Amino acid sequence: MFDVSVTDLGNSLYMIDAGMHNQPERLACYLFDTPQRVLIECGPSNVLPNLVAALESIGVDDVAAMVVTHIHLDHAGGAGHFAERYPKAAIGVHEVGARHLVDPTRLWNSAERIYTPEGMVKLWGPMQPVAEDRLLRLDEGSTIPLGGSRRLEVMYTPGHARHHVVFSEEVSGGMFVGDSVGIAFPHGHPVQPVTPPPDFDEPLVIEQLRRMAARQPGFVGFAHYGVAEDSPRVFEEAEARLGEWVAFVETLEGAPDAAERLRDWVLAGYRSDGMTDEDIEQYDRNTYWPMQVTGIERWLTKRR
């Protein structure tokens, strides 16, 4: 099993390294250890043993709710298994994605076309349904009580996915953004876009980035990976880099090697910015380049 890592962020908030793919800094889950405990993200089913061990290490044996930013497998693939392990937990998801947790067949089949049946088992593990009566359906303006006067506030943030939400909490100052901003790593590393099909929409992503920035969060909690305290820089960089990626992919005009050319261009830019080989490799192994290109190309086709 992955060696569990739990970071105390203060204000009864913990960051858990879920050990996705048995590697560090692949998926961060966030736990509010408040009177009504809430966990943000559960990851795929094959990380559930890591997650349970992490929760037990800080004395947590149950939660009131587990909420996901969206239903992609790396965030919510284990929702059914989590619900079985923690039978008192409500499972929170945007209403657009709720049916795919109740019946994950279509979601699974779609992902299987990308990752292959063997890859699905290796990368994510199986999925199982969440009972309808366990669901907490979320939308813009929903709130999730944490106990006392604390609560999570929900923003609906489509653009990365039609079923994406982010969560904000006043006392900690945190905004937990899933994939709506992109990926970034601790210590001020750059924000990198995440542009998968079929829902990626550049103007919609930018609209949500500006809405999130207007909230002026004290920190941004990335799912991939960790906390960034310089929030204004995060949102500005996310918007700028997204525009650069879309413009570059557009110049490739559907070339068969577009994914490899995007990868080479991005990583060369990181080298010229002075990033270490270790940091560059971290971004590379966290990026499925064909998916990023396909998402942008699909949106460009729709725009035309």
List keywords for this structure.
single chain, alpha/beta, Metallo-beta-lactamase, Chain A, seven-stranded mixed sheet, 10 helices
Radius of gyration: 18 Å
Strands, count: 13
Mean pLDDT: 95
Q: Report the major sheet.
A: 7 strands, mixed
Helix content: 40-55%
Q: Which descriptor suits the 3D outline?
A: globular
Unreliable parts? none
Instruction: Determine the strand fraction and express it as a percent band.
Output: 15-25%
Spell out the helices and strands N to C: EEEEHEHHEHHEEEEEHEEHHHH
State the CATH class. Answer: Alpha Beta
Quaternary state of this entry equals single chain
Tell me what the CATH architecture is: 4-Layer Sandwich
- Derived from helix and strand composition plus strand pairing, the structural class reads alpha/beta
Q: Can you identify the CATH superfamily?
A: Ribonuclease Z/Hydroxyacylglutathione hydrolase-like
CATH topology: Metallo-beta-lactamase, Chain A
Spatial arrangement of strands, main beta sheet: 1-2-3-4-5-6-7
Number of helices: 10
Q: Any idea how many domains? A: 1
Distance between the termini: 48 Å
Can you describe this structure?
By secondary structure, the protein is an alpha/beta fold. It is 40% helix and 19% strand. The chain contains ten helices and 13 strands. The strands form two sheets. The chain has a seven-stranded mixed β-sheet with strand order 1-2-3-4-5-6-7. Strand 9 and strand 10 form a beta hairpin. Helix 6 packs antiparallel against helix 7, helix 7 crosses helix 8 and helix 8 crosses helix 10. It starts with a strand and ends with a helix. The model has no long low-confidence stretch (mean pLDDT 95).
